[in-house]
UniProtKB/TrEMBL annotation:
Keywords: Membrane, Transmembrane, Transmembrane helix
Residue intervals passing through the bilayer: 6-24
Keyword Membrane: yes
Protein name: DUF2550 family protein
């Protein structure tokens, strides 16, 4: 009986340590400033699925996205604003509302790497579009300006 209680105690201690590590990681990412809550669609194989929650941090010409439930200290994805354009924006469909807040907006971006769908709050979208538009001289062309997106 004592061994069972010790085993449960150790398991609880490990779980609490893991949760504390996730919390410290999140605080360390957010402490640098310029962070927003951002969902990234990692897979498009099943309609409405494939979304992962995270924090994104603006760092110069990069938007670094960190998964919320990850122990990895570095970003999972990095979007460079060089050559980045906003293709369109839309509201989440009913299947996506199961994992995304209803007041969020989904934005499809096209870059030199590959298209990516990101989701964020409407108020964060304004800052994101400003960041994209503030591309270095020569990088922002009429085709890559964020206000040329299509709704729907």
């Amino acid at each position: 009986m004592v061994r069972i209680v010790e085993g449960i105690g150790i398991a609880v201690l490990i779980l609490l340590a893991a949760l504390a590590l996730l919390f410290v990681r999140r605080v360390a990412i957010a402490r640098r400033g310029g962070t927003i809550e951002l969902g990234v669609r990692l897979s498009t194989m099943v309609p409405g699925r494939g979304w992962s929650a995270g924090l994104a941090r603006f760092a110069g010409d990069d938007l670094r996205w960190y998964r919320i439930f990850s122990f990895w200290p570095g970003p999972r994805r990095v979007l460079s604003r060089r050559g980045l354009s906003v293709d369109r924006r839309r509201t989440p469909d009913p299947a996506e509302l199961l994992v995304l807040p209803p007041d969020w907006v989904i934005v499809r971006c096209v870059s030199r790497q590959a298209p990516v769908e990101i989701a964020m709050a409407e108020r964060a979208l304004t800052g994101f579009l400003s960041w994209v538009e503030a591309a270095p001289p020569g990088e922002s062309t009429p085709e890559t300006r964020p206000y040329r997106y299509r709704t729907g």
